[in-house]
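#lab-general

N.A. 3:47 PM
ok so I finally got the sequence cleaned up, no stray characters, all 127 residues accounted for. can someone with queue access submit it? mine expired

B.Y. 3:52 PM
send it over

N.A. 3:53 PM
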Amino acid sequence: MSTQVEIAARLIEAREAKGMSGAQLARELGMSQQKYHPYEHDREMKASMIVKVCAVLECSPSWLLGIKDDGMNLPPESELLKSLKQEFEKLNTKGKKKAVEDVGELVFVPEYRKSAMDAKDSDRRSA
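B.Y. 4:20 PM
back already:
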């Protein structure tokens, strides 16, 4: 995993690639610019914030965290992801924020997490 400085640099890169200012991204995330600003410098992000940021900036968490250099964009959409996206688009802003929070929390529930074996199978299928 990258250092916090490297993560911050990737965050800025992704934000600028979307043509957004820090203030615009902060608004999309539902926070003040003052609260967002430290993320671009030295503040660590919780998993739920990483999910939100990546959803807004359309980048993968693995890219943002420097775990896998899979480029800024999310992998090609599977049918399941397409279905999820269609349902997500039916939500208003408040509903979208809640959905992102809920997904961010699901990654901490062992029952819903991919096992190491599932991750390897998924990687093989996408290769």
